[in-house]
Each structure stands twice: as C-alpha cells, then as structure tokens.
Amino acid sequence: xxxxxxxxxxxxxxxxxxxxxxxxxxxxxxxxxxxxxxxxxxxxxxxxxxxxxxxxxxxxxxxxxxxxxxxxxxxxxxxxxxxxxxxxxxxxxxxxxxxxxxxxxxxxxxxxxxxxxxxxxxxxxxxxxxxxxxx
Length: 135
Fold this sequence. Notes:
By secondary structure, the chain is an alpha/beta fold. Helix content is 54%, strand content 13%. It contains seven helices and six strands. The protein has helices spanning 2-6, 8-31, 36-46, 56-61, 75-82, 98-109, 121-127; strands at residues 49-52, 63-64, 68-69, 90-93, 115-117, 132-133. Strands 3-1-4-5 form a four-stranded parallel sheet, with helices on both faces. Helix 6 links the parallel strand 4 (90-93) and strand 5 (115-117). The N and C termini lie far apart (65 Å).
C-alpha cells in the first residue's frame, strides 16, 4: 500500500495513457458503424446510394459496384447534385473508413440524415468477399 501512496503519479500516468489509447477506438465507433453486410442490405432493399470519397486514382484501383466517385474535398458542392432525395440512405466509403466518417458529418450538415460510413472502408468490403469494380 505504501508503494501506491508513494507513487500515485505512476498510476495517474498509466490511467491517462490507457485512456489516450482507447480514445481513437471510441471516436471511430460512431462514425463508421455500418458493416459490409448491412450496407448490402441498404443497397438492395432501400436503394441506398453509394458514394466513394476516395481520390480518383484510389477509386480506379477498386470500388463498390455502382459507387459514384466524389472526392472528399468536392463532397459539399457535388453531393446535392448526385442525391437529390435527402431521404434516401447514403453509404459513404473510402479506403479505411476515416474519410468516410468525416464525409458523414458533412453530409448530415447538408441535410442527409440517413448518411452512414462503411466501417473499415474498402478494406472491410474486400475482406467480406463482396464484389469490387475497377475503372
């Protein structure tokens, strides 16, 4: 017990470093929670629109079949022209899921309340052995 009292700062440091390690996991859980299987259901049942926010060269290497390429930097200006019905589900995809999470926040600001990011991005899509199209 004396060790704990004498070295309380080590425990505080361990707690702080542990919480910093968990922070990215907790933060990304809200942005990309749509599994590849759930995305396929949205596409097939609810006619979801798939928007790939990768750059053109990444998009050409492989993307979800039927996805439209809108780089993240152009999303705010081009999304309203591509998806006129804001009630339709929008599935946002990128290589790993990070950009898609940012794209969801942008889409929701534009009024697309059914926008969701594909968790794990194209990496998760390929791991689920789902079809990939190359341009």
